[in-house]
């Protein structure tokens, strides 16, 4: 991955954005695995995840801009600050949702993001999405319904509600990033990760990472860098290169990936409805990518 690809969206073709968002989905899909693996409370997990994620993205920004890193941060403007705030709140909702409901439910609810993003983009900028992406978003929404309806009476409504709030916030963040695509928003991503750690600090117990099992701190480091930091970095850059609606649609690939990983690692078998819904979402994403692979965004 070159500095050119991450710093100058005008020099890239749309497929670069697609590849980056696909890779971000792979990174984000490990969230359920790490939340099951790490045995600390949610607040402590969020604190260390934010710290390591912020350090990872900040290191990339410094490597890219050097002495101009502070100027790069200043260039994000109020839109960048708003995007950072949305990302911070979404992150807190996301981790809590993973603890309150099934991993598969969280990620399939997140598959509504293309629909929500398209609505926000149209309301704010008047931007209209390609018909193929809107159709694919509708198909993904069907997959969401298939998965979530059986959970209504299963005592998971609070977790599902948090997942929905997270999805709205992520959609808003993508619209903001796309709106400000002439500016590198990676400093905003680093800021959002740091803000997450700061916000949860009063409820966290940072020392618990050292008093738990020997691998806890190492796992937290991997969680913060490989899942959060890398995933957010790739998503931020990729969203600049493709439409705000297509970005969450492609990102929905983590829907089938995440429960599959948790199933392989911990034996948490997804419910039949979740498997069916995930398959529908996957078909929608792949179909849209194949249709627009040679189209200009």
Question: Could you explain the architecture of this structure?
Answer:
Helix content is 76%, strand content 0%. It has helices at 3-7, 14-28, 31-37, 42-65, 69-74, 77-100, 103-109, 113-125, 131-148, 157-179, 186-200, 208-211, 216-241, 246-251, 254-266, 272-292. By secondary structure, the chain is an all-alpha fold. It has 16 helices and no strands. It is globular and about 45 Å long. Helix 3 (31-37) packs parallel to helix 15 (254-266) and helix 8 packs across helix 9 (131-148).
Q: Can you tag this structure with a few keywords?
A:
297 residues, mainly alpha, 16 helices, globular, disordered N terminus
What is the strand and helix layout of this fold?
Blueprint: H1 3-7, H2 14-28, H3 31-37, H4 42-65, H5 69-74, H6 77-100, H7 103-109, H8 113-125, H9 131-148, H10 157-179, H11 186-200, H12 208-211, H13 216-241, H14 246-251, H15 254-266, H16 272-292
């Amino acid at each position: 991955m070159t500095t050119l690809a991450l710093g100058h969206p005008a020099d890239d073709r749309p497929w670069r954005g697609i590849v980056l968002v696909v890779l971000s989905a792979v990174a984000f899909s490990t969230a359920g695995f790490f939340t099951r693996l790490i045995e600390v409370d949610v607040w402590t997990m969020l604190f260390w995840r934010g710290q390591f994620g912020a350090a990872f993205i900040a290191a990339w920004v410094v490597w890219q801009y050097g002495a101009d890193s502070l100027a790069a941060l200043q260039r994000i403007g109020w839109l960048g600050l708003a995007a950072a705030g949305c990302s911070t709140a979404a992150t807190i909702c996301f981790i809590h949702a993973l603890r309150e409901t099934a991993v598969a439910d969280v990620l399939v609810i997140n598959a509504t993001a293309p629909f929500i993003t398209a609505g926000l983009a149209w309301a704010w900028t008047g931007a209209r999405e390609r018909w193929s992406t809107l159709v694919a978003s509708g198909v993904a929404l069907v997959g969401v319904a298939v998965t979530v309806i059986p959970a209504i009476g299963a005592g998971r409504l609070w977790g599902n509600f948090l997942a929905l709030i997270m999805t709205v916030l992520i959609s808003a963040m993508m619209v903001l990033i796309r709106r400000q695509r002439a500016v590198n928003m990676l400093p905003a991503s680093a800021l959002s990760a740091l803000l997450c750690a700061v916000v949860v600090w009063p409820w966290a117990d940072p020392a618990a990472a050292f008093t738990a099992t020997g691998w806890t701190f190492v796992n937290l480091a991997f969680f913060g860098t490989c899942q959060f930091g890398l995933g957010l970095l790739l998503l931020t850059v990729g969203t600049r290169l493709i439409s705000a609606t297509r970005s969450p649609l492609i990102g929905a690939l983590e829907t089938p990936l995440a429960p599959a990983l948790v199933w392989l690692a911990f034996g948490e078998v997804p419910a039949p409805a979740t498997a069916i819904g995930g398959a529908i979402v996957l078909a929608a994403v792949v179909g849209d990518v194949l249709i627009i692979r040679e189209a200009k965004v």
